[in-house]
Amino acid sequence: MEWTKVTVTTLNESVEAIANILTDAGAEGIQIEDVTDVQISAFFPESIFVPERLPIIKHRIGQLAEFGLDAGAGTVALQQVADDDWATAWKKYYRPTRLTRFLTVVPSWTDYQPEDPREALIKMDPGMAFGTGTHPTTHLSVQMLEMILRGGEQLIDVGTGSGVLSIAAAHLGVSDIRAYDVDQVAVDSAKENFALNPVTKGIDAQPNDLLNGIAVPADVIVANMLTEVLVPMIPQAKPLLKPNGHLLLAGIINDKEAVIRQTLAANELIVQETLYMGDWVGIIARLKTDED
């Protein structure tokens, strides 16, 4: 079987949006490579006549500017690849990655040996349509979890994707984790990764649109998503935070930081810490108190 590889050259801030555009167009696998510009490669089965869908893909990429996203060059290139090449192409870029001092993401097919006896492994087999857990926004999210968690908390993971943040939280001692994603395929992928990590036993993973309909509060809510999704989620998170609870936000490109800060302030949430990695921002927020 042959596949059509569509590669889009773009900027960091548009990676997730373009990956979604390609998936909506029928791609069955996504590979992201960071170079001077980011290259997103999507793999389409031979049953899809890609040239017919290219105008739609290009049009939707062109529309990203209307949502405040800079797609950079936004160029689109096609290439035919054999089945075996596709099956291994994305894996060669996925290697064990130390996210923090004590947490390392490890591909499930590798025999990685910890370098430190205190090092906890997050085993992942994200499939070809979900993140590998090595993106800077994941680094920021896990670093924030390490800063905040003390063990025994109740946590909500919004937009769980591959489930990497839920697994990290379980390693850090969270006793009650609820993982949500609007995409059932993502929920299924997360559950498969939870099965690779015995520490996650008992995590509740369910499809849900952000925090709509969620009523049980939590000590920590973590969300690693695009700013355009975080903005409507923040008002939903506020009533679900317990006293002294924290909202951890990542997926924020640096020129969107002000928008997030404004949204937090409008919802009486105080920025407690801000982390930076390259073009990305992570924010730890808490409820405003009488002392603020």
From TrEMBL:
<protein>
    <recommendedName>
        <fullName>Ribosomal protein L11 methyltransferase</fullName>
        <ecNumber>2.1.1.-</ecNumber>
    </recommendedName>
</protein>
<dbReference type="GO" id="GO:0016279">
    <property type="term" value="F:protein-lysine N-methyltransferase activity"/>
</dbReference>
<comment type="similarity">
    <text>Belongs to the methyltransferase superfamily. PrmA family.</text>
</comment>
<feature type="binding site">
    <location>
        <position position="224"/>
    </location>
    <ligand>
        <name>S-adenosyl-L-methionine</name>
    </ligand>
</feature>
<comment type="function">
    <text>Methylates ribosomal protein L11.</text>
</comment>
<dbReference type="InterPro" id="IPR029063">
    <property type="entry name" value="SAM-dependent_MTases_sf"/>
</dbReference>
<keyword id="KW-0687">Ribonucleoprotein</keyword>
<dbReference type="GO" id="GO:0005737">
    <property type="term" value="C:cytoplasm"/>
</dbReference>
<keyword id="KW-0949">S-adenosyl-L-methionine</keyword>
<feature type="binding site">
    <location>
        <position position="138"/>
    </location>
    <ligand>
        <name>S-adenosyl-L-methionine</name>
    </ligand>
</feature>
<dbReference type="InterPro" id="IPR050078">
    <property type="entry name" value="Ribosomal_L11_MeTrfase_PrmA"/>
</dbReference>
<keyword id="KW-0808">Transferase</keyword>
<dbReference type="GO" id="GO:0032259">
    <property type="term" value="P:methylation"/>
</dbReference>
<keyword id="KW-0689">Ribosomal protein</keyword>
<dbReference type="GO" id="GO:0005840">
    <property type="term" value="C:ribosome"/>
</dbReference>
<dbReference type="InterPro" id="IPR004498">
    <property type="entry name" value="Ribosomal_PrmA_MeTrfase"/>
</dbReference>
<keyword id="KW-0489">Methyltransferase</keyword>
<feature type="binding site">
    <location>
        <position position="159"/>
    </location>
    <ligand>
        <name>S-adenosyl-L-methionine</name>
    </ligand>
</feature>
<dbReference type="Pfam" id="PF06325">
    <property type="entry name" value="PrmA"/>
</dbReference>
<feature type="binding site">
    <location>
        <position position="181"/>
    </location>
    <ligand>
        <name>S-adenosyl-L-methionine</name>
    </ligand>
</feature>
<keyword id="KW-0963">Cytoplasm</keyword>
